[in-house]
Specification:
about 60 residues, mainly alpha
């Protein structure tokens, strides 16, 4: 294998690795966005649960 062939092969590998890293970064952004949405939903559910708990406590009094 010549030096040029080796360089070409390394360049191809580098390009493939770059694409893989870019895909992983995009997936991580989507995951982070979705996780943020889930956390917001949990916070809203917690708030509703607290309101219901307060109503129950008032009714029990």
């Amino acid at each position: 294998m010549t030096t040029d062939e080796r360089i070409e092969k390394l360049t191809e590998r580098h390009e493939a690795l770059t694409q893989t890293v870019e895909l992983m970064a995009a997936e991580n952004q989507q995951r982070d966005r979705r996780l943020g949405e889930i956390m917001e939903g949990i916070a809203r559910l917690l708030h509703v649960a607290e309101i219901h708990e307060q109503r129950i406590e008032r009714l029990e009094e």
